[in-house]
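Supplementary Note 2. Why include the ligand at all?

Several targets in our set were suspected to adopt different conformations when bound, so apo predictions alone were not considered sufficient. For every target with a known small-molecule partner we therefore ran a joint prediction. The input for iron/sulfur cluster is given below.
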Amino acid sequence: MPQSVDELKTRAEQAELSDVSTDQSVCGNCRFYAEMVEGIGYCSHRAVDMVVGEPWWCKFWAAKD
Ligand code: SF4
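The joint prediction is reproduced in C-alpha cell form.
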C-alpha cells in the first residue's frame, strides 16, 4: 500500500530528519543507506523507511559494521 505524505512527514519529524548534517555522520555512510542513484538512496531503518539524500542525517544514524 502506498505510504501517505502524512505518514512520511510524521516519521521524518520523529527521526529529526534533516537535509544537512553538522558533522561527518550522513546518510551516505550510515548502515541503513542503500544507494539507488548517485546522491539518492533508500533508508531501511524501520522508523524511517523512505528515500533519503546522501548528505542528509537523522537521529538513528549508525556506523557500518
Ligand atoms: S537511519 Fe537516518 S542517517 Fe541512516 S540512512 Fe536512515 S535517515 Fe539516513
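The mean pLDDT is 96. The pocket of iron/sulfur cluster is lined by residues 17, 27, 30, 32-33, 43, 45, 48, 52, 56-58, 60-61 (CB under 6 Å). Comparable summaries for the other entries are listed in the accompanying table.
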